[in-house]
Amino acid sequence: MNLLDNNPATSWPEAIVLLAIVLVVGFLIILVVGSMFDYRKQKLAASQAEDLRQLVRRYEQLAENTLDTQQRVAADLAELRTRTAAIEQILRSVE
How confident is the model over 40-55, as pLDDT tens digits? Predict the structure, then answer.
């Protein structure tokens, strides 16, 4: 089975073996390429999951900060209402 022979005639068993080798190599190439695509897809999914986790952490931080700010504003507003009521009482007593 010397491919460099000048004799172009190839026997059927040699042709079948060559065809089988080509098919096996083609199958292995397809298998490797498919595995690479699956690996890349899994890597991309893991990256997206990590990005989503970071986004959720950031949202939780922002929600916590917003809650703190709302509580401070509510406390300040309550203090302003108390002061306004005291001022109104002083003005009524002056009249």
Answer: 999 999 999 999 999 9
